[in-house]
Specification:
444 residues
């Protein structure tokens, strides 16, 4: 193939990436806009139901059970809409699965709105990534690209989807390259950058330009505290291993109830999460409001510990419902809780913050978000950059690097695979089982 032909192919790929990126930005922006309104409605519903006394407890239980049921119904209609979808995107990139059909977009859009909006502990990023990947694959097919071109486009748009979900353009690009494509080849890098720029620009027309979290000014911790962040990262790695195993173990446990229809299982899980909402609204939902409260130092130590423990279980349980929804956003909230908890406990044992290191707690919160993400997903650069872009803060980059590197090292040395590798293998095994026995039922 001549250089001119190669150049024309790259230009064509980039033009298609811009078109698909604009579509991904509009779809992802509309999805986030709807979800934000549903979350405000959920808070109003909880305030109203709290005024009803004991009977009001059943309102969030019924609402979340209904939302989980609708999400499960969407998956019944389009099975590839189940779960995060990132594992499916990675399987397509590796040639292990075919790109999802276009009908996945309305199923994922509506199912995720119902599940996440009603209060399940799920993230918006998985559905946005999956919908973006479908847009990319369909645009590539209509643009006459071959199979490798289709895979490049769907991988590029997965990054565009993440960029819109978190308003993190660089993090979205890194996600497509580091996590999905696991390659920095030029044919993937250039269209990914074009796609991310187009998607975030389109999304901002709907969502605005503000960062996800407003972070108070953080005094950079002294470099003498770097060993503290390394220890923190090592512990974060252990927590990440435990969380990944909890996600997989809960999927297996819920999937073991084969005599219970999937929609009924989802409804029961939704009812459990709804009961948590009735007790404390912070225990469920995607977790953005909780993360902001932790960043603002608005959660005291006992509540930090309690919320961490509850959400550590509620997140995997929500994912096991099999509805559309991701793992990232709840994982970031969990990391923020863990970072704040560690900082508070460390300050009790060894009063570090009183020695001119007022930024220790804030730095630990941000480092906890990145380190736990890195340990679970095993994409450290993506995690760090996403957190920096979501918080518009780069002053704690050095301690964040130390903590994340230590967390990823522990997770890697344990032999525990990245969570999306495990989920992809599980998805492929379930698909093979359904082909062998069409009447079988497996959890997503």
């Amino acid at each position: 193939m001549s250089p001119q032909t190669t150049d024309r192919g790259m230009v064509r790929l980039c033009l298609l990436a811009v078109v698909a990126g604009l579509a991904t930005g509009l779809i992802g922006g509309a999805f986030r806009w709807c979800l934000e309104h549903l979350e405000r409605w959920r808070h109003d519903m909880l305030e109203w139901s709290a005024g009803l006394g004991v009977p009001g407890w059943f309102v969030p239980i019924a609402v979340t059970a209904a939302g989980a049921t609708v999400g499960a119904l969407a998956v019944r209609l389009v099975p590839t809409a189940a779960g995060s979808g990132i594992q499916h995107v990675e399987a397509v990139e590796r040639g292990e699965a075919n790109a999802a059909p276009l009908r996945l977009i309305p199923a994922k859009f509506a199912g995720a709105l119902a599940a996440i909006g009603s209060g399940l502990v799920l993230g918006r990023e998985g559905p946005t990534v999956h919908m973006g990947a479908v847009v990319g694959a369909e645009t590539a097919r209509r643009g006459g690209l071959d199979d490798p071109g289709v895979r490049v486009m769907q991988t590029s748009m997965s990054g565009a989807g993440l960029a819109v979900a978190f308003t993190a353009p660089i993090g979205g690009a890194l996600f497509a390259l580091e996590e999905v494509g696991r390659s920095f080849r030029l044919r993937l890098v250039v269209p990914t950058v074009f796609a991310v720029v187009a998607a975030v620009a389109a999304g901002r027309l709907i969502l605005g330009d503000l960062p996800e979290f407003v972070v108070p000014s953080i005094t950079v911790p002294s470099v003498t505290l770097l060993p503290v962040f390394v220890v923190f990262g090592l512990l974060s790695g252990l927590i990440g291993i435990a969380y990944s195993r909890t996600v997989l173990g809960t999927l297996g446990w819920v999937g073991g109830f084969t005599r219970v229809p999937p929609m009924a299982r989802a409804a029961v899980i939704g009812a459990v999460i709804g009961a948590l909402l009735a007790v404390d609204a912070r225990t469920a939902g995607g977790g953005d409001d909780l993360t902001q409260a932790v960043v603002d130092d608005g959660v005291v130590l006992p509540a930090l510990v309690a919320l961490f423990l509850v959400r550590f279980v509620a997140g995997p349980l929500s994912y096991a419902a099999g509805t559309p929804g991701g793992l990232f956003a709840p994982l970031l909230a969990l990391g923020a809780l863990w970072g704040a908890t560690f900082a508070e406990l460390a300050d009790v044992v060894v009063p570090l913050s009183g020695a001119g290191d007022a930024g220790l707690r804030g730095a630990m919160v941000l480092a906890g978000m990145a380190a736990l993400f890195g340990a679970v997903v095993r994409a450290p650069l993506t995690g760090m950059v996403v957190v920096m872009e979501m918080t518009a803060t780069t002053t704690v980059a050095l301690p964040m690097l130390a903590a994340t590197a230590a967390a990823v090292l522990v997770a890697h040395m344990s032999g525990s695979p990245p969570v999306y590798d495990s989920l992809r293998e599980r998805m492929l095994a379930n698909s093979s089982r359904r082909e062998d026995d069409p009447g079988s039922d497996s959890a997503s």
